Here is the input.
Amino acid sequence: MDRWKREIAIAALWIAVALVLGSIMGYRAEWLLAVTVVLLTRQSLAINELEQRLRHGIFRDYRSRRGIWGDIYWHLWKIKKSEKKRKKRFSKMIEQFRSSTDALPDAAVVLAEDGEIEWINRAAHEVLGLKKSDKGQRIPNLIRTPQFVDYLKSHDYQHKICIPSPVNDSVILQISIVPYGVGLRLLLAQDVTQIKNMERMRTDFVANVSHELRTPLTVLKGYLETLQDMDNVPLGLARSFDNMTAQTNRMQNLIDDLLLLAKLETKAKKADCVDMLSLLEQICHESDLLEKDERRIELTLHTDCNIIGDRQELQSAFSNLVENALKYSSPESHINVGWLKTADGGVCFEVEDFGEGIPAHEIPRITERFYRADSKRHQKIQGTGLGLAIVKHVLMRHDARLDIQSQLGKGSRLRCLFPAKRIC
Ligand code: ADP
Here is the structure.
């Protein structure tokens, strides 16, 4: 029989005995009351014992109790045993996690909602100078670099930032933040000094070489001009001079573009309010002048928004796009240049041409340095392969991005998309 049925049977038996005794000896109600009080007292004592055992977690001696209460203690003892096992497993996992994060060369810090430090690994001490005793303190009070404080406050963690280490100025740290859980953030700091130094060496090398090549090239160009101006130059030689001039011009363009890219990588950013109307009119006018007879560019201004940034850099980027549109489409076709608002509140500069377009598989690669789309038609068109790399870099410095849409045989539309925060 089930324990609980037995329990009910015992209670029923007690009541039956009370009824029998009440019938024989009289006072049936009193007998019934007495039995009910006994039964209730018994259950109250058992509940009291359960409360005591729950409070102290003692269920091991479940055998000392019989009946339904013995069963309850046995179940509770089983739950407690599995809970204990789970706890042990968890502490082992936490211990393993702690030792693995302590072995990490990168600093890891768990931050609560208001930036209070909840947990740090060992590297956080070496790299960021944080101590275990800093737990509970707000991190902006300990790492005060303005760029870091702004990054933390911005809650926009799509990109990473680089700051000097608070412990050692010569160490450059790359900081990234990953939000997780409810209001928690994991801050990671990686030492990128070596990578940054290598990048700087590469930029310096390219800039120095380009700069040093400028003078001999100018001398060569000078001599070539003198030779071309000479009278009675044999026809074969004149053709060679023309080829040499074309090649030196090409080299000059390459050097100019390389120097511009190096400047974009090192120069401090400007934040002027650039008058877009005059800039766009200037770009279209100057680009149109490059064309022999026809005026091909149609400029449409849908908005009078201006942009916070560097006028010279924006001019280089936009001119590159307009010149590409002119270069890579037939001399009779039109080019549409537009300045308009976007659906997300930002603003966009777009250049549309009706040339041969760019093959879909080449689109992701054409912004790479020196990449030129493999087209027989393009072989005769002069270029350095650096134009769109410059555009991409300039846009990056203005929190903007380049969107390329193209259909083979129909044309291309290249758009520079600026976020609303850049409008002035
Ligand atoms: P380039 O000096 O060769 O023009 P860019 O970086 O400006 O260098 O462009 C890279 C390549 O992208 C070009 O070689 C060309 O093949 C392709 N390209 C760029 N703009 C256009 C365009 N409007 N139409 C077709 N192809 C284009």
Remarks:
- The first helix runs from residue 3 to 25.
- The chain has four domains: 2-93, 104-191, 195-266, 272-422.
